[in-house]
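Reviewer 2 asked us to include a model.

Predict the structure of this chain.
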Amino acid sequence: MTISINELCAAIRDLAPEEIAESWDNSGIQLELTSKPVAKILICLEITGRIIDEAIASDCDFILTHHPLIFQPISKVDINTIMGTYLVRLIGNGISVYSAHTSFDSAWGGNNDDLANRLGLSEIRAFDDTGHPKSGGLGRIGLFQPPRRLEDIVRMVKEVLDIDKTVNYVGNPEQMIREVAVCAGSGADSIDDVRSKGCELLITGDTKFRHGQKARETGIALIDAGHYHTEKIFADNMAGYLRSRFANQVEIMESAIDLDPFDML
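Predicted model (structure tokens):
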């Protein structure tokens, strides 16, 4: 059971073409070992030393990540750096890497659609009109029907996204919320756009003090569900898509150690 790396990359691009990624991003093939067919794929949020250990132990020859392995051009491969170590180990073990980052965030059926669906929103629509048939932009808007109390939404977000730590939010806990914007990862800089579109709540991650102040001053509710927790759904979503495309043709596994890097007391 194998497929070519070209077949696999073409399937990923069919869902999340690289041209719909943000200009600053580096979605796409990161490390290509074209002479070797793909027999087993590991899907994860991002490359770490433990992820490479997992791939080697599981005999994977392809890692599909959300966060790019390589964001900026590199001038040399230095074994004394984290990136150099990763690349040497991946190449030495014949493991190719592809990253579907903002291309998958923006894609219809990608991270933001999945997040909106998991949170029970209805009438889900694009946040931005991108002009591309496969892209709805970096976010989605949907409705809670019937409207829900903000405090109840916070609790529901923690349960649905399996968050075992405190979730910060801004707003009156008794406020009834109907129209919601979601942005997986880091979307707090869109607060003004969210308000202009009539949304009462933004659910995202990576919020800062200034975002909380702006939300409180402008009257929009804000829930910080965390970068990791709003994007860890990537592996499950992408695995389901690839299994539907390559049933019984290639083995697909989701990382068992794709963990939040932050500990808590």
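Residues 108 and 165 are 30 Å apart (CA to CA). The longest helix spans residues 233-245. We have added this to the supplementary material.
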